[in-house]
From TrEMBL:
<keyword id="KW-1133">Transmembrane helix</keyword>
<feature type="transmembrane region" description="Helical">
    <location>
        <begin position="101"/>
        <end position="121"/>
    </location>
</feature>
<protein>
    <submittedName>
        <fullName>Uncharacterized protein</fullName>
    </submittedName>
</protein>
<keyword id="KW-0812">Transmembrane</keyword>
<feature type="transmembrane region" description="Helical">
    <location>
        <begin position="70"/>
        <end position="92"/>
    </location>
</feature>
<feature type="transmembrane region" description="Helical">
    <location>
        <begin position="133"/>
        <end position="153"/>
    </location>
</feature>
<feature type="transmembrane region" description="Helical">
    <location>
        <begin position="6"/>
        <end position="23"/>
    </location>
</feature>
<keyword id="KW-0472">Membrane</keyword>
<feature type="transmembrane region" description="Helical">
    <location>
        <begin position="44"/>
        <end position="64"/>
    </location>
</feature>
Length: 163
């Protein structure tokens, strides 16, 4: 089961890159009034992983006081799945009015990412999925997801500035 979620994290990264290229293909048909209002959501995504990890770190040392590294690894992976689902939501909303077939890829990515995030959100599920895996492996996959989501996020926000 752990390989399934590690594979899903790589699939999310790949779907982010492909969805971004679909977004660029139909960029001239996008309603820019909607884009400007949704850009605020993407700007929040820049800081969300840092804020979540900081809060989990404080809670681990002050309140939970057990399983600190597992809790941080859990928060790291789950927040990256949530960030991916928000970016997919952004792309799906922007391309929804263009063609119905174009929206399938971001919606599929959003559903997969949300499923993984919801399933892994309870710490017990995370521990049961990754019980025989070194804790650094999910962290590396979370880092890959973070890099692809930040890259996609940056490109989506700076696309308008180039035109």
């Amino acid at each position: 089961m752990s390989y399934l979620f590690l594979g899903l994290s790589l699939l999310i990264g790949l779907l982010l890159i492909v969805s971004r290229s679909v977004f660029y293909r139909y960029y001239d048909k996008i309603n820019f009034n909607i884009k400007k209002s949704l850009d605020k959501m993407l700007r929040i995504i820049y800081f969300a992983p840092v804020i979540v990890l900081f809060i989990i770190l404080i809670l681990t040392f002050t309140y939970f006081k057990s399983k600190g590294f597992i809790r941080l690894s859990h928060a790291w992976l789950v927040v990256n799945f949530w960030v991916g689902s928000v970016i997919f939501y952004y792309i799906a909303i922007e391309t929804a009015k263009i063609q119905k077939l174009v929206i399938l890829l971001p919606v599929a990515g959003m559903v997969i990412s949300m499923f993984a995030a919801i399933y892994l959100t309870p710490l017990q599920h995370y521990e049961s999925v990754f019980y025989n895996i070194n804790i650094m492996i999910p962290n590396v996959f979370g880092l890959i997801m973070l890099i692809t989501s930040y890259y996609t996020n940056h490109k989506l926000l700076t696309k308008e500035a180039k035109k």
